[in-house]
Amino acid sequence: MKLVYIRPFIHFTKSQRLGLFSLISFILVLQAILWYQPLWYTPEPLPKEAQIWLQDTSSESLVPPYKSYPIKPFNPNFITEYKAFRWGMSAASYQRLQAFRTQGKFVNTVREFQEITKVPDSVLEKMAPYFKFPAWVSTYKKGNSKPFPFAQEPPKKIVKKDINSATADDLILVRGIGPVLSERILKYRAALGAFVAMSQLQEVYGLKEEVFDTLLEHFAVVQPPVLEKIKINEATIKELGVFPYFRYPVSRHIVAYRSMNGPIRFEDLTNVKGISVEKIKIIALYLEF
Q1: Are residues 259 and 216 in the same domain?
Q2: What's the confidence (pLDDT) of residue 145?
Q3: Model pLDDT, residue 34
Q4: How large a percentage of the chain has pLDDT more than 90?
Q5: Which CATH number characterizes residue 262's domain?
Q6: I need a labelling partner for 6 at 20 to 30 A (CA). Which of 25, 186, 223, 268 fits?
Protein backbone atom coordinates (compact mmCIF):
# COMPACT_ATOMS: atom_id res chain seq x y z
CA MET A 1 0.00 0.00 0.00
CA LYS A 2 1.38 3.37 -0.97
CA LEU A 3 2.06 5.96 1.72
CA VAL A 4 -0.09 8.51 -0.08
CA TYR A 5 -3.26 6.59 0.94
CA ILE A 6 -2.55 6.49 4.69
CA ARG A 7 -0.91 9.89 5.00
CA PRO A 8 -4.20 11.76 5.68
CA PHE A 9 -4.75 9.52 8.72
CA ILE A 10 -1.35 10.07 10.37
CA HIS A 11 -0.81 13.72 9.48
CA PHE A 12 -1.59 16.18 12.30
CA THR A 13 -1.58 19.92 12.32
CA LYS A 14 0.41 21.93 14.86
CA SER A 15 -2.63 22.55 17.06
CA GLN A 16 -3.54 18.85 16.98
CA ARG A 17 -0.05 17.82 18.03
CA LEU A 18 -0.15 20.33 20.87
CA GLY A 19 -3.51 18.92 22.05
CA LEU A 20 -2.25 15.34 22.00
CA PHE A 21 0.84 16.28 23.96
CA SER A 22 -1.25 18.07 26.57
CA LEU A 23 -3.60 15.08 26.94
CA ILE A 24 -0.75 12.59 27.39
CA SER A 25 0.98 14.88 29.90
CA PHE A 26 -2.25 15.19 31.93
CA ILE A 27 -2.71 11.41 31.98
CA LEU A 28 0.85 10.83 33.17
CA VAL A 29 0.57 13.43 35.93
CA LEU A 30 -2.75 11.94 37.11
CA GLN A 31 -1.28 8.41 37.18
CA ALA A 32 1.71 9.65 39.20
CA ILE A 33 -0.62 11.31 41.76
CA LEU A 34 -2.70 8.15 42.14
CA TRP A 35 0.40 5.98 42.38
CA TYR A 36 2.08 7.99 45.16
CA GLN A 37 -1.10 8.77 47.07
CA PRO A 38 -0.52 6.13 49.84
CA LEU A 39 2.72 7.87 50.76
CA TRP A 40 1.04 11.06 51.87
CA TYR A 41 -2.61 10.06 52.34
CA THR A 42 -3.70 9.74 55.97
CA PRO A 43 -7.13 8.17 56.52
CA GLU A 44 -9.56 9.90 58.83
CA PRO A 45 -10.04 8.27 62.23
CA LEU A 46 -13.20 6.21 62.72
CA PRO A 47 -15.98 7.60 64.90
CA LYS A 48 -15.86 6.57 68.53
CA GLU A 49 -19.06 4.45 68.21
CA ALA A 50 -17.54 2.46 65.32
CA GLN A 51 -14.34 1.81 67.30
CA ILE A 52 -16.35 0.50 70.29
CA TRP A 53 -18.37 -1.76 67.98
CA LEU A 54 -15.22 -3.23 66.42
CA GLN A 55 -13.78 -3.96 69.85
CA ASP A 56 -16.97 -5.74 70.90
CA THR A 57 -17.17 -7.88 67.76
CA SER A 58 -13.52 -8.95 68.04
CA SER A 59 -13.86 -10.07 71.65
CA GLU A 60 -13.93 -13.76 72.52
CA SER A 61 -17.26 -13.30 74.28
CA LEU A 62 -19.06 -13.55 70.93
CA VAL A 63 -17.51 -16.93 70.14
CA PRO A 64 -19.50 -19.73 71.79
CA PRO A 65 -17.33 -21.91 74.01
CA TYR A 66 -16.54 -25.39 72.74
CA LYS A 67 -18.93 -27.87 74.25
CA SER A 68 -17.24 -31.10 75.18
CA TYR A 69 -19.44 -34.16 75.49
CA PRO A 70 -18.74 -36.81 78.12
CA ILE A 71 -17.32 -40.07 76.84
CA LYS A 72 -19.86 -42.85 77.28
CA PRO A 73 -18.84 -46.42 78.16
CA PHE A 74 -18.80 -48.80 75.20
CA ASN A 75 -18.30 -52.46 74.41
CA PRO A 76 -14.87 -52.79 72.70
CA ASN A 77 -16.12 -55.78 70.70
CA PHE A 78 -18.23 -53.42 68.59
CA ILE A 79 -15.84 -50.50 68.25
CA THR A 80 -15.87 -48.89 64.81
CA GLU A 81 -12.79 -48.21 62.74
CA TYR A 82 -13.23 -44.44 63.11
CA LYS A 83 -13.62 -44.69 66.88
CA ALA A 84 -10.58 -46.96 67.12
CA PHE A 85 -8.55 -44.38 65.18
CA ARG A 86 -9.72 -41.61 67.53
CA TRP A 87 -8.58 -43.62 70.54
CA GLY A 88 -5.15 -44.11 68.97
CA MET A 89 -5.40 -47.73 67.85
CA SER A 90 -3.34 -48.61 64.81
CA ALA A 91 -4.87 -50.18 61.72
CA ALA A 92 -3.10 -53.46 62.49
CA SER A 93 -4.58 -53.58 66.01
CA TYR A 94 -8.07 -52.95 64.69
CA GLN A 95 -7.67 -55.66 62.05
CA ARG A 96 -6.55 -58.17 64.70
CA LEU A 97 -9.71 -57.44 66.68
CA GLN A 98 -11.90 -57.84 63.59
CA ALA A 99 -10.22 -61.13 62.67
CA PHE A 100 -10.88 -62.38 66.21
CA ARG A 101 -14.52 -61.28 65.98
CA THR A 102 -15.11 -63.00 62.63
CA GLN A 103 -14.50 -66.31 64.40
CA GLY A 104 -17.61 -65.68 66.50
CA LYS A 105 -15.56 -64.89 69.60
CA PHE A 106 -15.75 -61.95 71.97
CA VAL A 107 -13.25 -60.08 74.13
CA ASN A 108 -14.34 -60.30 77.76
CA THR A 109 -11.58 -58.59 79.76
CA VAL A 110 -9.21 -55.64 79.44
CA ARG A 111 -6.19 -57.97 79.53
CA GLU A 112 -7.68 -60.13 76.79
CA PHE A 113 -8.31 -57.02 74.68
CA GLN A 114 -4.61 -56.10 74.85
CA GLU A 115 -3.46 -59.65 74.15
CA ILE A 116 -5.50 -59.80 70.95
CA THR A 117 -5.06 -56.25 69.63
CA LYS A 118 -1.45 -55.72 70.84
CA VAL A 119 -2.23 -52.09 71.67
CA PRO A 120 0.44 -50.28 73.71
CA ASP A 121 -0.12 -49.55 77.40
CA SER A 122 -0.50 -45.81 76.73
CA VAL A 123 -3.52 -46.43 74.48
CA LEU A 124 -4.99 -49.06 76.78
CA GLU A 125 -4.79 -46.72 79.79
CA LYS A 126 -6.99 -44.22 77.95
CA MET A 127 -9.51 -46.77 76.68
CA ALA A 128 -9.85 -49.25 79.56
CA PRO A 129 -11.80 -46.96 81.97
CA TYR A 130 -14.59 -46.73 79.36
CA PHE A 131 -14.88 -50.44 78.55
CA LYS A 132 -18.31 -51.87 79.29
CA PHE A 133 -18.71 -55.62 79.02
CA PRO A 134 -22.06 -57.47 79.23
CA ALA A 135 -23.39 -58.50 82.63
CA TRP A 136 -22.84 -62.20 81.95
CA VAL A 137 -19.07 -61.63 81.77
CA SER A 138 -18.94 -60.97 85.52
CA THR A 139 -20.64 -64.28 86.21
CA TYR A 140 -18.22 -66.16 83.99
CA LYS A 141 -15.63 -68.24 85.77
CA LYS A 142 -12.74 -66.07 86.96
CA GLY A 143 -9.24 -66.86 85.75
CA ASN A 144 -10.50 -68.48 82.56
CA SER A 145 -8.75 -66.68 79.74
CA LYS A 146 -10.61 -68.63 77.09
CA PRO A 147 -12.94 -66.29 75.18
CA PHE A 148 -16.56 -66.63 76.21
CA PRO A 149 -18.58 -67.94 73.26
CA PHE A 150 -21.43 -65.77 72.05
CA ALA A 151 -24.73 -67.38 72.91
CA GLN A 152 -26.82 -67.10 69.79
CA GLU A 153 -30.55 -67.30 70.11
CA PRO A 154 -32.20 -69.95 67.97
CA PRO A 155 -34.00 -68.45 64.98
CA LYS A 156 -37.64 -67.79 65.67
CA LYS A 157 -40.03 -69.91 63.70
CA ILE A 158 -42.32 -67.80 61.54
CA VAL A 159 -45.93 -68.89 61.57
CA LYS A 160 -47.32 -68.21 58.13
CA LYS A 161 -50.71 -66.56 57.83
CA ASP A 162 -53.34 -67.39 55.26
CA ILE A 163 -53.01 -64.90 52.41
CA ASN A 164 -56.75 -65.03 51.82
CA SER A 165 -57.50 -63.77 55.34
CA ALA A 166 -54.70 -61.19 55.46
CA THR A 167 -55.65 -57.57 56.07
CA ALA A 168 -53.99 -54.38 54.88
CA ASP A 169 -52.31 -54.02 58.29
CA ASP A 170 -50.88 -57.54 58.00
CA LEU A 171 -49.45 -56.86 54.54
CA ILE A 172 -47.90 -53.52 55.49
CA LEU A 173 -45.78 -55.30 58.10
CA VAL A 174 -43.85 -56.89 55.22
CA ARG A 175 -40.81 -54.87 54.22
CA GLY A 176 -41.42 -53.22 50.84
CA ILE A 177 -45.22 -53.12 51.03
CA GLY A 178 -46.95 -49.83 51.75
CA PRO A 179 -50.59 -48.70 51.79
CA VAL A 180 -50.81 -48.48 47.98
CA LEU A 181 -49.37 -51.92 47.29
CA SER A 182 -51.39 -53.58 50.04
CA GLU A 183 -54.57 -52.09 48.58
CA ARG A 184 -53.67 -53.46 45.13
CA ILE A 185 -53.18 -56.95 46.58
CA LEU A 186 -56.53 -56.86 48.35
CA LYS A 187 -58.33 -55.55 45.26
CA TYR A 188 -56.80 -58.27 43.09
CA ARG A 189 -57.79 -60.90 45.66
CA ALA A 190 -61.36 -59.56 45.66
CA ALA A 191 -61.49 -59.66 41.86
CA LEU A 192 -60.37 -63.31 41.85
CA GLY A 193 -62.51 -64.30 44.80
CA ALA A 194 -59.44 -65.75 46.53
CA PHE A 195 -55.88 -66.77 45.80
CA VAL A 196 -55.39 -70.43 44.96
CA ALA A 197 -51.60 -70.14 44.64
CA MET A 198 -49.03 -67.71 46.01
CA SER A 199 -47.60 -67.27 42.51
CA GLN A 200 -50.69 -65.19 41.66
CA LEU A 201 -49.27 -62.37 43.78
CA GLN A 202 -46.63 -61.85 41.11
CA GLU A 203 -49.43 -60.61 38.86
CA VAL A 204 -50.00 -57.60 41.13
CA TYR A 205 -48.64 -54.45 39.49
CA GLY A 206 -45.62 -52.98 41.27
CA LEU A 207 -44.78 -56.02 43.40
CA LYS A 208 -41.02 -56.56 43.11
CA GLU A 209 -39.43 -59.99 43.16
CA GLU A 210 -37.61 -59.44 46.46
CA VAL A 211 -40.85 -58.30 48.10
CA PHE A 212 -42.63 -61.38 46.74
CA ASP A 213 -39.92 -63.59 48.26
CA THR A 214 -40.49 -61.89 51.63
CA LEU A 215 -44.22 -62.47 51.29
CA LEU A 216 -43.59 -66.18 50.84
CA GLU A 217 -41.85 -66.20 54.23
CA HIS A 218 -44.89 -64.78 56.03
CA PHE A 219 -47.93 -65.89 54.03
CA ALA A 220 -49.26 -68.99 52.29
CA VAL A 221 -52.48 -70.48 50.98
CA VAL A 222 -53.06 -72.39 54.19
CA GLN A 223 -56.22 -74.16 53.05
CA PRO A 224 -57.95 -74.36 49.65
CA PRO A 225 -60.45 -71.50 49.40
CA VAL A 226 -64.14 -71.97 48.64
CA LEU A 227 -64.62 -70.36 45.24
CA GLU A 228 -67.73 -69.21 43.43
CA LYS A 229 -66.91 -70.82 40.11
CA ILE A 230 -67.65 -69.32 36.73
CA LYS A 231 -69.86 -71.34 34.39
CA ILE A 232 -67.73 -70.94 31.31
CA ASN A 233 -70.32 -72.50 28.98
CA GLU A 234 -73.16 -70.26 30.17
CA ALA A 235 -71.62 -66.91 31.14
CA THR A 236 -71.96 -63.93 28.81
CA ILE A 237 -69.11 -61.82 27.50
CA LYS A 238 -69.78 -59.24 30.20
CA GLU A 239 -69.87 -61.82 32.98
CA LEU A 240 -66.66 -63.45 31.75
CA GLY A 241 -64.94 -60.09 31.43
CA VAL A 242 -65.19 -59.48 35.19
CA PHE A 243 -62.78 -62.37 35.80
CA PRO A 244 -59.18 -60.99 35.71
CA TYR A 245 -57.92 -63.79 33.43
CA PHE A 246 -60.78 -63.27 30.95
CA ARG A 247 -60.58 -59.56 30.33
CA TYR A 248 -61.85 -58.38 26.94
CA PRO A 249 -61.14 -59.50 24.21
CA VAL A 250 -60.46 -62.93 25.81
CA SER A 251 -64.09 -63.13 26.93
CA ARG A 252 -65.24 -62.53 23.33
CA HIS A 253 -62.90 -65.26 22.06
CA ILE A 254 -64.40 -67.71 24.60
CA VAL A 255 -67.95 -67.02 23.52
CA ALA A 256 -66.96 -67.23 19.84
CA TYR A 257 -65.18 -70.55 20.36
CA ARG A 258 -68.12 -71.86 22.35
CA SER A 259 -70.62 -70.90 19.65
CA MET A 260 -68.53 -72.52 16.92
CA ASN A 261 -67.34 -75.68 18.72
CA GLY A 262 -69.91 -76.34 21.39
CA PRO A 263 -69.32 -76.60 25.16
CA ILE A 264 -65.79 -75.89 26.29
CA ARG A 265 -63.89 -78.57 28.20
CA PHE A 266 -60.70 -78.20 30.18
CA GLU A 267 -58.53 -79.41 27.30
CA ASP A 268 -60.15 -76.85 25.00
CA LEU A 269 -58.77 -73.88 26.97
CA THR A 270 -55.46 -74.10 25.12
CA ASN A 271 -57.32 -73.50 21.85
CA VAL A 272 -58.96 -70.27 23.00
CA LYS A 273 -57.06 -67.24 21.82
CA GLY A 274 -55.66 -65.06 24.60
CA ILE A 275 -55.68 -67.55 27.47
CA SER A 276 -52.24 -67.97 29.04
CA VAL A 277 -51.08 -71.56 28.64
CA GLU A 278 -48.82 -71.26 31.72
CA LYS A 279 -51.80 -70.34 33.92
CA ILE A 280 -54.38 -72.81 32.60
CA LYS A 281 -54.16 -75.09 35.65
CA ILE A 282 -54.78 -72.14 37.97
CA ILE A 283 -57.54 -70.71 35.75
CA ALA A 284 -59.34 -74.07 35.63
CA LEU A 285 -59.79 -73.98 39.42
CA TYR A 286 -62.09 -70.98 39.01
CA LEU A 287 -64.23 -72.58 36.26
CA GLU A 288 -67.17 -74.91 36.10
CA PHE A 289 -67.33 -76.88 32.85
Answers
A1: no
A2: 47
A3: 72
A4: 42
A5: 1.10.150.280
A6: 25
